Amino acid sequence: MTAPNTNCRGPVPFSATGRRAFLQTGLAGFASLSLPGILKLRSHAASSAEAEKKAVIMVWQPGGLSHIDSYDPKPDSGSEYAGPFKPIATKVPGLRFTELLPRQAAIADKMVVLRSMRQSAGGHPAGSMQLLSGDPDTRDKPKPKYPDWMAVSNYMLAQRGPRKNPLPSYVGINPPLEYNGPAYLGDTYSPFVVSGNPNAPTFSVPNIGLTDADEVARLGRRASLRQKIDTLDRSFDHARELGALDEFESQAMGLLTSPQTKVAFDLNREPSRVRDRYGRNAWGQQLLLARRLVEAGVDVLTTSLSGPLCGRVNNWDDHAVNHNVFEAMKFRAQVYDQAVSALIEDIYARGLDKRVLVVVTGEFGRTPKISYAASTGGGDASAPAGTSQPGRDHWPRGFSNIWAGGGINAGRFVGATDKRGEDAIERVSGPGDFLATIYHHLGIDYGTTFIKDFNGRPTPIVDHGKAIPELIG
């Protein structure tokens, strides 16, 4: 594997060491949080434009969803390809899902199914980097060469002026960070991370919206710029940067003490019937929290549907050695179907469908042809070790994702794969198109925007691609 060039510093004024020195400020519910630094370049649109700001929620399926067993069934492809699940009608004429997704089928008029996504990388790292950052490399790398669209959006939105909303611009609820990140933009543009299970009785976000004066004072001392000054990167322009840091430290303390932040993260403020509708489980409550946060002013929200609800290996990577793919699909289907359909319905019911774009995707699909191998371990959705079971492997040549809200003309499907689901053959869309569509929604000019990389070279945020016409409002 070839590692990206890391010899030169990126544009962020803190070194990695300096940034880390600001961490551990008592925000136990968050990861990678530097109080003054993390807010520094996350500011954007002034309060007069707050109501008109666009937002994106990306729901990530790490490992890749089987398109054949969900949104693109091929019942006539033969026993080597077709799974056991029957196709069912949806609310959109001519569009069929499998029987695993009855709730989404019932609201298909509120979404667009893109059935012709394609990229060229077969590994999880490279596949994720291609789709989320546009990196054309097919080799798996230990860390990203290019920033993902979430970090780029955070950076671009930061250029628009001071952010008056105390909530961060970019939040990740158990986000997809294993293979992605801000790259040469630096950690300042990483997400404000919420970790854990929002459905757990003990779940909380500590130290958000503090009201105790002594605790606020204690955190103020711990976050003090002057106590950390010796850890700052001495290579940046002190006069310019230090003059701004007091302001950002003040913003950080505002995040800690603002009642608005405490309310936004408090799922107990939702009616029981709403929490029940999403599902009283980790995925359902993650998506409900996502809706609450974008409604409160977060611009970019990412969340991964991973963990025990996926099956034995905690993701959607349904190789036969990991899972019985069909048992895995059944195991996670009810929770997945309920949570995603609730989010989409809620976006429309609350009048957010013009402002908020919802994207549900993984890095690729799964092989249309079923494979068989011995299980490497028993557990949820997997037979005991040594038992032969069916699986599907990585498949980037044609797969599906769903889009909702964003002002798009919903109730249709775009593109097609061939009769076996092997290749995207109609209205083929690549990573550049995927990225351009999201940037377009956020009002970012993807065609003319360049950001300097580690070596100071202007790098386009979309190298090849255009916003998909059917997916833009």
Keywords:
473 residues; alpha/beta; Alkaline Phosphatase, subunit A; 9-stranded mixed β-sheet; two-stranded antiparallel sheet
Word description of this protein:
The chain has 473 residues and is an alpha/beta fold. It has a single domain, classed as Alkaline Phosphatase, subunit A. The chain is 29% helix and 15% strand. It has helices at residues 16-21, 35-40, 102-106, 124-133, 149-158, 213-222, 225-228, 238-257, 259-265, 272-278, 282-296, 325-349, 431-441, and strands spanning 30-31, 55-60, 87-89, 96-98, 111-117, 170-173, 192-194, 300-304, 356-361, 365-366, 371-374, 388-391, 394-395, 399-405, 412-414, 416-417, 424-426, 450-452, 458-460. The strands form 6 sheets. The protein has a 9-stranded mixed sheet with strand order 1-7-6-8-2-9-14-5-15, with helices on both faces. A hairpin with a 5-residue loop joins strand 18 and strand 19 (458-460).
Overall pLDDT, averaged?
85
What is the CATH level 1 assignment? Alpha Beta
> Residue ranges: pLDDT <50 for 5 or more in a row?
1-51, 222-248
Oligomerization category of the chains in this entry: single chain
CATH topology: Alkaline Phosphatase, subunit A
Rg over CA atoms: 22 Å
**Structural class based on helices, strands and sheet pairing:** alpha/beta
Helical amount? 25-40%
How many DSSP-defined strands? 19
- Percent of residues in β-strands: 15-25%
Report the principal-axis shape. Answer: globular
Structural domains: how many: 1
Distance from first to last alpha carbon: 40 Å
- Give a short account of the largest sheet: 9 strands, mixed
